[in-house]
Specification:
two-stranded antiparallel ribbon, 599 residues, two-stranded antiparallel sheet, mainly alpha
Length: 599
């Protein structure tokens, strides 16, 4: 939902360069031998590669900690984005044009054409061209997906031609055609697997470029860009997504056998596109997610209930029956002991060992359960009692009692949390499959669409059941579409896909219908009979000491609720960028302008 807006925009970059040139005096010009000149870069293969690596470094996505941008999570009460609450304005937009990577890629591609084979072999020149075109397409799509059509610039600009720096917006259809053209070129030029797999792991492959093409065309076929449901767009998306799935399989890609170890068994066959993290040099910090720290990405009830049971059937929940002890007990049993494998792989629950190697008070035993549970002090008044069960444990225990587990580097102590090394997998084979299956469904290929869901669910440990349907009951296009919405929510939780999925489907109603952000407080029945540190929530004896309570509004204020505006699907261009362009850039229709992002 947000684009990096810190870089100087393409038109201002040109003006700044012109002003700098005008401000230089000839008498002060002299060669500076302490810097790297352009001729040194394009005459050295290692420097050329370093320039390309710089594009990677500024483009490759990192671990997202943004579950609160949808119905996945909450960070803190009343920490609720205005856009989600329906508080929007043209001036308050978070979108914008950022040509930083495009400018670098254009410069790289233009210079690469002049590099002789004595410096860079033809095969390597073609590979680098494919990589740069991928990143140019990536950067263009990031903008087009937000605001619709943008100015298409494919070569380095002449800063002396000041009027020529101000380019109007191209149609969205023209932009998508150019993005696909760049990706098609990358597909032709890139290898499926690099010959030096160890040294080149993480570089964009033919499979990644094909997957990106499928991702773009899937979005372009979805209701956001395709309100008339043009079947030709779905066919194009289907062809691209299926090609990525099929070719990826020939290159050794497949679902990793165990969902839980996708992020610990690095360089596995499911990885399509990855940002590698390592210490020192490029480590990550998962301290934001750990209990007692910043408590980022605390799962909401909507996500907690989204994971199906082991037989694939939905996790049923009736908040009005929680006062019935028998119902509450059975719900707790199903909730903790009858879920598919993705549940505990994605979500950390109180009453299980913390996903860190340090010892826990008071027994200081590694692997001891950590109890993030609640005491009820009155109507809608609760206190987290983790510090009562674990004396000396410090920190704010958050507002849900649940935390993100997916991807956490479990090899580092809390004090070394900034040394985390878990790779961020931006694309994995599961996405390629799900994209293909969704397109198949929209074209009426129900059996193909269901086969994909069955593969995903089988890997999640769901039992095949009678007829081998893995709990799936959908038969119609509409029902299968809903099944994909639900399955993507679970499969890709905390992977920065949920909000974009809801937006491209134009399904903000899924958020708005929830109204407040709901929670589930696991509450002790008797303060004189607390869970013991060595007990686990999966034990019936431990659960007998607890009850589940429904929290209607974790923000504690009824004005804080999902209320997304259903008349604004594309974001506005910042007024400052429009004025900086001398009004060459036009505002989107939804925001009072004349530009139609659907053309």
């Amino acid at each position: 939902m947000k684009l990096n807006n810190k870089y100087v925009k393409f038109f201002l970059s040109g003006l700044s360069a012109v002003l700098l040139m005008w401000g230089c005096k000839k008498g002060l010009d002299y060669p500076n031998n302490g810097v790297i000149g352009p001729e040194m870069v394009w005459g050295d293969a290692n420097m050329i590669k370093a320039y390309l690596n710089g594009i990677y470094g500024k483009s490759m996505p990192e671990w997202p900690f943004n579950g609160a941008s949808s119905d996945e999570a909450i960070n803190a009460p009343k920490d609720f984005g205005n856009y989600l609450r329906g508080i929007i304005s043209e001036a308050g937009t978070n979108s914008g044009l950022d040509y930083n990577i495009i400018d670098r890629a254009n410069f790289f591609l233009d210079e690469l054409v002049t590099v002789p084979t004595t410096v860079l072999p033809d095969e390597l020149n073609k590979q680098y061209t494919g990589e740069a075109k991928f990143w140019r397409a990536w950067s263009y799509w990031r903008m087009v997906n937000q605001v619709g059509g943008v100015p298409i610039i494919l070569h380095k600009q002449d800063f002396n031609d000041v009027p020529g720096l101000f380019k109007p917006r191209n149609k969205t259809s023209e932009c998508v055609a150019q993005i696909v053209k760049d990706l098609d070129s990358a597909i032709l030029l890139l290898p499926g697997v690099y010959s030096n797999a160890a040294a080149d792991y993480g570089r964009i492959t033919k499979v990644a470029a094909m997957a990106m093409k499928g991702r773009v065309l899937l979005n372009y076929a979805s209701p956001l860009f395709n309100p008339t449901n043009d079947p030709a767009r779905w066919q194009a998306a289907y062809d691209a997504c299926k090609a990525a799935v099929d070719f990826g399989a020939t290159q050794g890609h497949d679902l990793h056998p165990r969902f839980h170890t996708i992020w610990t068994d690095e360089r596995n066959k499911e990885v399509i596109m990855v940002n590698q993290f390592f210490y020192p040099g490029h480590s990550n910090n998962f301290g934001f997610l750990r209990p007692g720290a910043d408590n980022t990405n605390q799962p909401l009830l909507s996500l907690l209930l989204a994971f199906p049971k082991k037989d694939g059937s939905p996790m049923e929940f009736d908040k009005n029956q929680l006062n019935n002890p028998a119902y509450n007990s059975q719900f707790m049993t199903d909730f903790y002991t009858n879920r598919d494998d993705r549940f505990f792989s994605t979500i950390y629950c109180g009453g299980t060992p913390q996903p860190t190697p340090e010892e826990q008070a008071p027994g200081y035993i590694k692997g001891m359960s950590f109890w993030s549970v609640w005491r009820q002090d009155g109507v809608d008044k609760y206190t987290n009692i983790a510090q009562t069960i674990h004396p000396g444990y410090g920190g704010n225990m958050g507002c849900t009692g649940f935390f993100q587990r997916k991807g956490i580097d479990t090899t580092v102590n809390t004090v070394d949390r900034f040394k985390a090394q878990t790779d961020w997998v931006e694309m994995r084979y599961a996405e390629l499959l799900m994209n293909y299956g969704e397109c198949a469904n929209e074209l009426g290929k129900s059996s193909e669409a269901l086969d994909v869901l069955k593969r995903i669910r089988k890997r999640a440990g769901i039992t095949a059941g009678v007829g081998g349907n893995y709990g799936l009951t959908a038969l119609t296009i509409t029902d299968i579409r809903e099944a994909y919405i639900n399955e993507r929510f679970v499969e890709f939780a905390f992977e920065d896909k949920r909000f974009n999925d809801l937006r491209r489907w134009k399904r903000y109603d899924i958020l708005n219908n929830q109204m407040g952000r709901h929670g589930l407080y696991i509450t002790v029945k008797d303060m004189n009979n607390l869970p013991l540190p060595y007990e686990k929530i999966t034990s019936a004896d431990a659960r007998a000491k607890l009850t589940a309570n429904y929290i209607d509004n974790l923000d504690g204020d009824g004005t804080y609720k999902f209320n997304l505006d259903l008349n604004h699907w594309f974001y506005a261009l910042p007024p400052s960028q429009i004025s900086q362009s001398k009004n060459v850039l036009l505002q989107n229709k939804e925001w009072g302008g004349t530009f139609d992002p659907l053309q």
